[in-house]
Amino acid sequence: MAKQAYSKKAVAMFSLLLIVAAVLFYWVWGISYGSWNIFSAENMGVYSIFVVLLGLGVLGLLLVKFKQ
Questions:
Q1: Which of 27, 67, 19, 59 has its CA nearest to residue 46?
Q2: What integer pLDDT is reported at residue 68 of this predicted model?
Q3: Given its phi and psi angles, is residue 37 left (phi above 0), alpha (psi -120 to 50 degrees) or beta?
Q4: What is the distance between the alpha carbons of residues 16 and 51, in angstroms, rounded to a whole number?
Q5: pLDDT of the chain, 68 residues: tens digit per residue
Q6: Among 15, 16, 26, 17, which Cα is nearest to 49's?
């Protein structure tokens, strides 16, 4: 069996960091610009960054949970 490059704990912590970064990014953007609607056309860039960070964080946690 091959040795893992990173421990499960390190991957889980990085994934949680990505989720926290996504939520903080959205929260700071909303407070800074007074725009909480991520589905409006002018906020599409913010929405795309939020979704990528959140998606990678959730995917990382799922991989840690289900990877042998």
A1: 27
A2: 64
A3: beta
A4: 14
A5: 567 777 889 999 999 999 999 999 999 988 888 877 767 788 888 889 999 999 999 999 999 998 76
A6: 26
pTM of the predicted model as reported, rounded to 2 decimal places = 0.83
CA distance 16 to 35: 25
Rounded to whole angstroms, the Cα distance separating 33 from 42 reads: 12
Whole-angstrom Cα distance, residue 62 to residue 51? Answer: 16
56: left (phi over 0), alpha (psi -120 to 50) or beta: alpha
Residue 14 is which amino acid? F
Question: Could you tell me where the DSSP H helices lie in the chain?
Answer: 8-33, 44-66
Task: Give CA–CA dist 65/46, Å, rounded.
Answer: 29
